Amino acid sequence: MQQLEPAIAQFIQAQNSHDTATALAFFDPEAVVLAQNQVWVGHAGILSWQQQQPARLQLEITAVRRHCGEFYLQTRWHSAVNATADCQFVFALQDGKISRLIVQSQST
């Protein structure tokens, strides 16, 4: 699997540890998250997005691809009740921080 940039790897580790404050630290203060047909901007908006995520999910990376400076991660969310959902995360970085994250649910 391709090596992830530190901000992305540490964000995923913090997400899996359910450490919202640490996960937020890897975003640029003006970053944008596009997920669930909504847009969240800046740390306050991204914190709101994180707080809306179901509790205790674990994110498994199944494939990584880099294209035109962006990282495309195929992922699978695992819940405590063994339910799974496939998603694609698209990260853009600027100055070592996440500047944009697009989360796309995938049909299975």
TrEMBL record:
InterPro entries: NTF2-like_dom_sf, SnoaL-like. Residues 9-100 form the SnoaL-like domain. Transmembrane segments: none annotated. Pfam families: SnoaL_2. This is Nuclear transport factor 2 family protein. It comes from Rheinheimera muenzenbergensis.
